[in-house]
Amino acid sequence: MKVNPNNIELIISAVKEEQYPETELSEVALSGRSNVGKSTFINSMIGRKNMARTSQQPGKTQTLNFYNIDEQLIFVDVPGYGYAKVSKTQREKFGKMIEEYITKRENLQLVIQLVDLRHDPTQDDILMYNY
């Protein structure tokens, strides 16, 4: 698939189903631990350095970020899991938001799980893989 990097936009940052974009495009979600490189992966795939916001500090992505990729598909950058510096309540909120998206979203065609191969998979990585 040839992508025009000038025709990519962040459609919406959503926290609930009512905010998801109304589109017929297929969606590809990126999951993984906090700071594993999901946003960097999106930027690399589309050939742009700063479309998806990146940070050295884990836990920056706190919403489902829907990126329209040249009217061909939508990448969805989801909050990372396993970040200890957010409250238990916030982690549960993220988990519920992600689970709702993955289980209910009809446009979702693929979930790509990114894992840092420099480290053994965590229990959270294994749970996500088995989900």
TrEMBL record:
Instruction: Please name the SUPFAM superfamilies in this protein's record.
Output: P-loop containing nucleoside triphosphate hydrolases
Q: Which GO terms describe its cellular component?
A: cytosol
Q: Care to name a GO molecular-function term for this sequence?
A: metal ion binding
Q: Which PROSITE patterns match?
A: G_ENGB (PS51706)
Task: Give any single GO term for biological process.
Answer: division septum assembly
Keywords carried by this UniProt record: Cell cycle, Cell division, GTP-binding, Magnesium, Metal-binding, Nucleotide-binding, Septation
* Cofactor(s) the protein needs: Mg(2+)
Q: Name one Pfam family in it.
A: MMR_HSR1
Positions of the EngB-type G domain: 24-131
Q: Which InterPro entries would you find in this protein's record?
A: G_ENGB_dom, GTP-bd, GTP-bd_ribosome_bio_YsxC, P-loop_NTPase
The reply to whether GTP-binding figures as a keyword in the UniProt entry is yes
Family the entry assigns: Belongs to the TRAFAC class TrmE-Era-EngA-EngB-Septin-like GTPase superfamily. EngB GTPase family.
What is this protein called in UniProt? YihA family ribosome biogenesis GTP-binding protein
Q: Which organism is it from?
A: Staphylococcus aureus
